[in-house]
Amino acid sequence: MSQNQDIKELLGLSDADMVKPLPQPTPWSRPFWEATREHRLVLRRCDSCGTYQHPPYPYCEVCWGEEFSWVEAAGRASLFAFSVNHFAVPFPFWGDLPYVTAIVELPEGVRMISNVVECDHEALHDGMELEVVFDDVSEEYTLPKWKPVGR
Questions:
Q1: What pLDDT shows up at residue 71?
Q2: What pTM does this model have?
């Protein structure tokens, strides 16, 4: 019996209680999610002032511009802050414990909340150089995650 099955039975949970949430794209974030499905990381850049945005909004947060281009990101980041989750997470994530939730800072000047994977949790440190990897979580959605460079 799987760990999730044990948890479900112990707590009287249904299959629906164990389903991980998926992204809910908006008209202005849809190109981001379409690109991740192709294993590409893109960022929205304001055509008026050149500011990169993540997450994307309907207008530029700096100049209020409404014209944007989607630009391929470098695919690198540095670890800005992180937490290794060992307990007290929503039911669907119990089977993943322990896992790392992080804020990563991209050279384009935006920060992104994601997970750091494929690493020894003890080796994590602020400023650590990371590279993007893609997790195909469903037929429709792929999540960008991060791993230490060279791993």
A1: 98
A2: 0.89
